[in-house]
Write a structure and sequence with these properties.
This protein is mainly β and 118 residues long. 0% of the residues lie in helices and 50% in strands.
């Protein structure tokens, strides 16, 4: 299983960030998939998850600005984060979820740096 994130490296404040994770080696409908980020100098922060049953869960503090959805025809899933601020600057990861908590994953993308700046 391989995961590959893609998206803009630089986003202006108040804009919407859109990141896509392409999954190869397995159908995205068979597992839970997550978005996780790591702000500079901080630990990993779970953003949200899509489960194989079709449910979506978000970090409460980001829920009002977050949207995660699948494109099963392309075997990929997308994170949209609206009204970004410099505090959203982080390395963003997609991963395949496993049991053990919202941050538990067995396969990870390599991560993509997103900087929010004017």
């Amino acid at each position: 299983v391989q995961l590959q994130e893609s998206g803009p490296g630089l986003v202006k404040p108040s804009q919407t960030l859109s990141l896509t994770c392409i999954v190869s080696g397995g159908s995205i409908t068979m597992h839970t998939y997550r978005w996780i980020r790591q702000p500079p100098g901080k630990g990993l922060e779970w953003i949200g998850s899509n489960t194989r049953s079709g449910n979506t869960y978000y970090r409460p503090s980001l829920k009002s600005r977050s949207s995660i959805y699948w494109d099963t025809s392309k075997n990929q899933f997308t994170l949209q984060l609206s009204s970004v601020t410099p505090e959203d600057t982080a390395v963003y990861y997609c991963c395949r979820g496993v049991s053990g908590g919202m941050g538990s994953c067995d396969y990870w993308g390599q991560g993509t740096q997103v900087t929010v700046s004017s």
